[in-house]
Amino acid sequence: MPVPAGRCSNMDxxxxxxxxxxxxxxxxxxxxFSYVDRAWQLKVSPDEARVPWRVQQVIDKVKAHAQHRNLPxxxxxxxxxxxxxxxxxxxxxxxxxxxxQYGPKD
Length: 106
Hints:
- The protein has helices at 11-42, 52-68, 73-102.
- By secondary structure, the chain is mainly alpha-helical.
- It has a single domain, classed as Chorismate mutase (Chorismate Mutase Domain, subunit A).
- It is elongated and about 60 Å long.
- The relative contact order is 0.11.
- Its EC number is 5.4.99.5.
- Residues 5-95 form the Chorismate mutase domain.
- GO terms for molecular function: chorismate mutase activity.
- InterPro entries: Chorismate_II_sf, Chorismate_mutase-related, CM_dom_sf, CM_II_prokaryot.
């Protein structure tokens, strides 16, 4: 059972909760990755991996939610931009490899 931060009485409890949260974050990022992995399969060319309006839409939503949760929006933006950048690069590489191997999709 999670211990609220204000009720942790020592660093061992704090570290245990941080480790629990890290496991949960990895699980959630893995779930998000599964959708990114599916997304590239539904696209036709590497150009479709980079969609600036969608990136901005995601960033705006994340920043708003972060602010609602009293998390610095700048922190959320920095984390998401890094993650999105990695996912875009992943999609581009997969799409280039797929195009090279099979030619353009119908």
